[in-house]
Write a structure and sequence with these properties.
Elements lengths: L1 H7 L9 E4 L17 E4 L6 H5 L6 E5 L5 E6 L8 H16 L5 E4 L6 H7 L5 E4 L2 E4 L2 E2 L6 E3 L14 E4 L7 E3 L8 E3 L1 E4 L2 E2 L6 E4 L4 E3 L2 E3 L2 E2 L4 E2 L3 E4 L5 E3 L2 E3 L2 E2 L8 E2 L3 E3 L6 E2 L8 E3 L9 E3 L11 E2 L4 E2 L9 E2 L4 E2 L4 E2 L1 H6 L7 E3 L10 E19 L5 E19 L6 E8 L4 E8 L2
Parallel strand pairs: 1-2, 5-6, 6-9, 7-10, 8-11, 9-12, 10-13, 11-15, 12-16, 13-17, 14-18, 15-20, 16-21, 17-22, 18-23, 19-24, 20-25, 21-26, 22-27, 25-28, 28-31, 29-32, 30-33
Antiparallel strand pairs: 3-4, 34-35, 35-36, 35-37, 37-38
Length: 440
């Protein structure tokens, strides 16, 4: 999982190699086939060079620099691969050692809270890692090929991951990438919302640039005044971005003028641009419930003559309908939608928790006014949902009589004060608690 996340962040100069003594070859049948992790054999006839040169002991992990010198070692069994905190520790340790003789790692956190200030300081190839939280305002990549990412622990599902939120606060595009970037410039793992562009690109504006937009949630952005385009993503000029694994929903292109001039609620592509949108099951985007006069989900502009047009590659994306209608995707001959999927198929493939009672993190969180609380119960039982304020007072209660499966409960906290709240779910056997943050 760590190796996959490093690759997603554009880190291709870190190797992870397993070493097995020949004595244990019979115990390592899965170390080669079907795994990312390669391994080398430390053999007796060569004098066990790994074992002797590095003082190896079983279960240890070794960090080597680019010249092969040993930097650090520790017992790997102290880490739990299913614990996000251990994941964060190990991936950050790798990135720190990599930065000793390579691109910088800039961290955005409570002590260093400005994403834009870190972009201003960054150089090509640097990685800006953002701690989970709410970040308001606009972000401009300037003219830099950088990675802007939140650690997204690929071992977790989308509902179970604490994400960093980029909130445009209703003023301009949330993210602007227009400095001639190539695919090595990466935007990875964010919630992007509340952008408001007068013309194009409420959520993300890409102009004359070709970044990689990977696994973001882009929702509730707006574009348009007297005409407009691309409330979720606008791709204009000579741009060739890769758009992979994003969820794009509830973005709106609209305005004050009574005209047929509002295009591409989800994604807008102009005549000179040529993106790749999706590509496989794992790279496909989920695009739904966006709004525009033309091409509510996808819109491609044209110069008038489309007789010999080559469609934009957009395989394995998810829509409400497959194939989508001409109102959803316009024009239909401008997009190669082979292997599209219906969104309801995602529900069939959903992996349910292996616990009897499960409380998902509320979404959104932090939230303003209302949030959704998703719960799961495997057996029919009566369950109770409590929400407490920081003083321990119950501010919300709901009783669910003998239910099983998944349920979503909306909590409207408009009458409550900003601050920390505790969500508690219990039945007669189990109890679960989560934290929620109300921000007004």
């Amino acid at each position: 999982m760590i190796h996959e996340d490093l690759i997603a962040m554009g880190v291709e100069d870190v190797s992870i190699i397993g070493v097995g003594k020949d004595t244990y070859n019979s115990d390592l049948p899965g170390m080669i086939d079907g795994r990312i992790l390669p391994w080398v054999e430390d053999v007796e006839e060569d004098g066990y060079p790994v074992w002797t040169d590095y003082g190896a002991v079983q279960r240890s992990t070794y960090f080597l620099d680019r010249d092969g010198a040993l930097l650090y070692q520790f017992n790997i069994t102290t880490l739990d691969p299913n614990d996000p905190e251990d994941y964060y520790y190990l991936i950050n340790l790798i990135l720190d050692y990599r930065a000793n003789d390579g691109p910088n790692i800039l961290r955005v956190n409570q002590g260093n809270p400005s994403i834009q200030a870190n972009i201003d300081m960054a150089y090509d190839g640097d990685i800006i890692l953002v701690d989970p939280g709410l970040y308001q305002g606009q972000i401009d990549f300037l003219d830099k090929n950088i990675t802007l990412a939140t650690l997204i622990y690929s071992g977790y599902g989308e509902e179970d991951i604490e994400r960093s939120i980029l909130d445009g606060d209703g003023v301009g595009p949330v993210v602007t990438i227009n400095g001639g970037q190539d695919q090595s410039s990466i935007l990875l793992g964010f919630v992007i919302k509340n952008g408001n562009a007068e013309e194009s690109g409420g959520g993300i504006l890409i102009e004359d640039s070709s970044p990689t937009i990977d696994r973001n949630i882009i929702h509730h952005n707006q574009a348009g005044s007297c005409g407009g385009s691309g409330a979720g993503i606008a791709i204009i000029g000579e741009s060739y971005p890769h758009v992979f694994g994003n969820t794009i929903h509830d973005n709106i292109v609209s305005g004050d003028c009574d005209c047929d001039c509002y295009f591409g609620g989800g994604i807008f592509v102009d005549t000179e641009s040529w993106p790749i949108v999706g590509g496989s099951i794992t790279l496909g985007n989920v695009i739904h419930d966006n709004f525009a006069d033309n091409g509510s989900e996808l819109y491609r502009d044209d110069s008038g003559d489309t007789t010999n047009w080559t469609p934009i590659y957009a395989h394995h994306n998810f829509f409400d309908n497959c194939p989508p209608s001409i109102q959803e995707v316009y024009p239909t001959n401008g997009w190669d939608l082979v292997h599209c999927h219906e969104i309801n198929a995602l529900g069939i493939e959903e992996t349910l928790p292996n616990e009897n009672l499960f409380l998902y993190p509320n979404y959104p969180n932090p939230f303003n006014a209302s949030t959704n609380i998703k719960i799961f119960q495997s057996d029919p039982r009566t369950a109770e949902l409590f929400i407490y304020d920081i003083r321990g007072m119950v501010v919300f209660f709901k009783k669910l009589e003998s239910f099983s499966g998944t349920n979503i409960i909306n909590w409207n906290a408009s009458e409550q004060s900003s601050g920390l709240y505790f969500i508690k779910l219990r039945n007669n056997v189990f109890s679960k608690t989560q934290k929620a943050i109300l921000v007004k």
